[in-house]
Specification:
The complex is a heterodimer.
Chain A lengths: L1 H16 L4 H14 L1 H26 L7 H18 L6 H30 L3 H24 L6 E4 L19 H18 L1 H11 L1 H6 L4 H18 L1 H9 L1 E3 L6 H11 L4 H20 L6 H30 L1
Antiparallel strand pairs in A: 1-2
Helix pairs in contact in A: 1-14, 2-3, 2-13, 3-7, 3-10, 3-12, 3-13, 4-5, 4-6, 4-10, 4-11, 4-12, 5-6, 5-10, 7-8, 7-13, 12-13, 12-14, 13-14
Chain B lengths: L2 H22 L1 H7 L2 H26 L7 H19 L2 H25 L4 H24 L19 H19 L1 H11 L1 H6 L4 H27 L10 H11 L4 H24 L11 H13 L13
Helix pairs in contact in B: 1-2, 2-12, 3-4, 3-7, 3-8, 3-10, 3-11, 3-12, 4-5, 4-6, 4-10, 4-11, 5-6, 5-10, 7-8, 7-10, 8-10, 11-12, 11-13, 12-13
Classes of the chains: A mainly alpha, B mainly alpha.
Chain lengths: 330, 315
């Protein structure tokens, strides 16, 4: 709460700096988004990707790992999903095509995630560093593959996927919102169930809270870390469904870029709770789609900066409040 | 493998790859074994080296320094902005250092005073610097991608003060860390904060004293990024801070070795530029990945050999 208030205050301050009236901007942002089904749809479209990437980051965070590689895992997912989708014969029915494409996206992301987790488990390599390197490497490889084989004559767009693999749009005034939102919400449910209701989820969070204690009660810490990172990568890879299957229906250079990094923000805002993340993703989706809606009043860079401020406020305020409380109780 | 062996293997591999290069790509080899190439390596190495030295200081004092990327980026921005405003590249350098210290101060405040997770604070600051510099570009110059031209050191090597700052830092930081009271206190803050408390020194202040110096060095590294090309462009640090901190860890938190490792990264990057100039068959999309792949391979091969400072990340 403090964090949100602080961010609102800092955001208003920033608006004053660029010479706009804060109250007017906030209100216009809300009003324009709420009254325009297209913008609402765009909020949902952005939120879908953010939910999955936010879950990816938070699942890893629960196990004490900081996965900033969601960006690379998402790109790997986009690449795999669109290549497989385009390779399918055009008459493939949806019941076959969809699962195959989703599986390809999740597997590609999981592979990158497992690599990060495995390096951490076997070589003690810091996951933040390896995931950052892999983000750059995956992006470079995707661009190379695109230029070499995928892009269709002079464009930065690959061949279209089989029509059976397309996810239907939600029909919000031609916006990009699509049925991948359902997949994201399913993922929220599944993650919540795993995390709260299974012994497996217990083990995974125990590793995050205190790896030494977890080891002493017989949890194979390294194995859990690798598996969790693979799962985290799969979630980020699944976000490709939103961009490829639901919207663009093909591989495109830079598709979904930035969603993986913003996913970190969603995970922080949602305090690693699956439902919290869904709400946080909606809020962030609103900020970035709403930021465009008020582009005539404030520059869109302001919302970008605001996102950073929000996350920093959340990150810093949490422990501070906890400390205050424990001091008060003592 | 014992240490002399490892060194021998490394030197052998370097010589062998040089010979292979000569036979396989004579044009590229001619470019690589030249004075101009050496100058290029130095210019590329400066930001990496300064960031890694700054990171070594901060981490040895017990604070996880994943905010190097933010310090480079913000340092680059302020250096260019101040250089543009005053017309002096030297003032730009000072501005870059101040910017690095500012980021460090924010980082230290959040992690030491507020007690936030240091890894998360670092990555968040990097995000904030990315958005913040774009916002400031828009605010000051009405354009979100590039700053107006700033004075530049261009291709100068010996006349570039940042090269000398980097060389001096590479010599002085290890010395100061080993031999001065400041160095002793910062190592104590990282390894045995109890000992500092016992002699009546606050570990937090010792960490702050170290972290601010580290921030200034990383900020100077950022200044090289923008002042070498005479202007700032969004996201111009492009992951260098992460590579620098990887080198700190790989070097076992020993600043002199970290600086040396950074020169290695710079050689890889300069070879990649040569590859693009000579236009070999190597895909141009993959060539820029060389430093990242190299770092990853070194991490995998070297693994974790030396322990980090005992109290790293704890307050």
């Amino acid at each position: 709460m403090i964090a949100v208030l602080a961010s609102l205050a800092i955001g208003s301050l920033l608006m004053l700096v660029v010479g706009a009236s804060p109250g007017h901007v906030w209100w216009t942002m809300l009003e324009r988004t709420a009254s325009d089904p297209y913008l609402l749809g765009q909020v949902l479209y952005k939120a879908t990707g953010l939910i999955l990437c936010g879950l990816a980051v938070s699942v890893a965070l629960d196990a004490g790992l900081f996965n900033i590689g969601a960006e690379g895992q998402l790109t790997a997912g986009v690449l795999a999903c669109s290549s497989v989708g385009a390779a399918l014969p055009s008459g493939t029915p949806a019941i076959v095509a969809l699962p195959i494409c989703l599986l390809a996206a999740a597997l590609a992301g999981a592979l990158v995630g497992a690599l990060i987790g495995g390096l951490r488990a076997t070589r003690g390599a810091h996951e933040v560093i390896t995931s950052m390197m892999l983000n750059a490497i995956v992006a470079g490889i995707a661009l190379w593959l695109g230029n070499e084989v995928l892009f269709q004559g002079g464009t930065t767009r690959g061949a279209a996927i089989a029509s059976g693999a397309e996810l239907p749009e939600l029909g919000l005034a031609g916006s990009s919102a699509n049925a991948a939102l359902g997949i994201a919400l399913l993922a929220v449910g599944a993650t919540w169930w795993l995390r709260e209701r299974t012994t497996w989820g217990r083990a995974w969070r125990a590793v995050g809270q205190d790896p030494d204690a977890a080891r002493s009660v017989g949890i194979a810490v390294e194995r859990v870390q690798t598996i969790v990172m693979a799962g985290s990568g799969a979630l980020a890879g699944l976000a490709a469904a939103n961009f490829v299957l639901g919207h663009k229906h093909a591989f495109e250079e830079g598709l979904g870029r930035g969603t993986g990094l913003l996913g970190i923000a969603a995970a922080m805002l949602g305090r690693t709770h699956p439902i919290g993340i869904a709400i946080a993703a909606l809020l962030l989706g609103f900020l970035s789609a709403g930021g465009l809606a008020v582009a005539d009043l404030v520059p869109k860079e302001l919302t970008e900066m605001l996102l950073g401020v929000v996350v920093l406020a959340v990150v810093a305020a949490g422990p501070w409040v906890a400390r205050r409380r424990s001091l008060g109780a003592a | 493998m014992s240490r002399p062996w490892r060194l021998a293997v490394a030197i052998g591999a370097a010589v062998a790859s040089g010979i292979v290069l000569w036979i396989w790509q004579p044009a590229l080899a001619a470019g690589v074994f030249s004075i101009a190439f050496a100058g290029q390596v130095v210019r590329i190495a400066v930001p990496y080296t300064l960031a890694a030295l700054g990171g070594s200081i901060t981490e040895r004092a017990g604070v996880v320094d994943l905010a190097l990327e933010a310090k480079l980026l913000f340092g680059a921005f302020v250096a260019a902005a101040l250089g543009h405003w005053t017309g002096s590249a030297y003032l730009g350098v000072l501005g870059g250092m101040a910017a690095g210290m500012l980021v460090a101060a924010l980082q230290l405040f959040c992690s030491l005073r507020l007690g936030a997770n240091q890894v998360i604070v670092g990555v968040t600051l990097n995000l904030l610097a990315l958005g913040g510099t774009r916002f400031l570009l828009q605010l000051l110059y009405g354009e979100g991608a590039n700053s107006p031209p700033a004075p530049s050191f261009e291709d100068a090597v010996l006349a570039n003060p940042l090269v000398w700052i980097a060389v001096a830092a590479a010599v002085l930081v290890p010395l100061a860390m080993a031999r001065t009271r400041w160095g002793l206190r910062l190592r104590a803050a990282g390894d045995r904060p109890e000992a500092l408390v016992a002699v009546g020194v606050s570990p937090s202040w010792a960490r702050a004293a170290a972290g601010l110096v580290g921030g200034a060095l990383a900020g100077a590294g950022g200044a090289q990024l923008s002042l070498a090309v005479g202007g700032f462009s969004a996201d111009m640090s492009s992951g260098r801070g992460y590579i620098a901190i990887a080198m700190v860890i790989l070097s076992g938190w020993r600043p002199a070795w970290a600086a040396l490792a950074c020169v290695g990264v710079a050689v890889a990057e300069a070879i990649n530029i040569q590859l693009q100039v000579t236009g070999s068959g190597f895909p141009r999309e993959l060539a820029p990945l060389l430093p990242y792949v190299l770092t990853l391979i070194v991490i995998v091969v070297a693994g974790k050999r030396r322990a980090p400072p005992r109290s790293l990340g704890k307050i």
